[in-house]
Amino acid sequence: MKRRTESQGERYFSIIGRCDKETLLAYHYTPDCMHNLNRYMVNHSNFVIAVWDGSFGRTAGTIRYARQKGKKVIIINPVTFKVRRSAPVKH
């Protein structure tokens, strides 16, 4: 795993210091920690805002999961800056 640079670490701790609440999901990096993080965020959100270029990958999976959980999803294309809404999957 790539370590943060000193300036990245300073920025991280500056942001954390301004948070109202911090939730720790894991003490160390694991192969599934980002998957678990994404699931946690979806499960604890009313809606999801995703910056996504339409490619296959972790973001696509998270958007699919959010829709399956009935969440409204707002997608921002990072190239065109177009915003679109993705309706939740109806059960």
What secondary-structure arrangement, pairings included, does this model have?
Elements: H1 6-17, H2 33-43, E1 47-51, H3 58-68, E2 72-76, E3 83-86
Parallel strand pairs: 1-2
Antiparallel strand pairs: 2-3
Summarize the structure.
This protein has 91 residues and is α+β, with helices and mostly antiparallel strands. It has helices at 6-17, 33-43, 58-68; strands spanning 47-51, 72-76, 83-86. It is globular.
Q: Can you give a write-up of this model?
A:
With 91 residues, the protein is an alpha+beta fold. It has a domain at 24-86. The chain is built from three helices and three strands; from the N terminus they run ααβαββ. Strands 1-2-3 form a three-stranded mixed β-sheet, with helices on one face. Helix 3 (58-68) links the parallel strand 1 (47-51) and strand 2. 4% of the residues are buried.
The number of helical runs is 3
How much helix, percentage-wise, in residues?
A: 25-40%
Biggest sheet, spatial arrangement of strands: 1-2-3
Uncertain runs with pLDDT below 50, 5 residues or more? Answer: none
Sheet with the most strands, sense and barrel status:
3 strands, mixed
Mean pLDDT: 92
Strand content: 15-25%
The N- to C-terminal Cα distance equals: 40 Å
H-E order: HHEHEE
- Rounded to an integer, what's the Rg over CA atoms? 15 Å
Number of strands: 3
User: What's the shape?
Assistant: globular
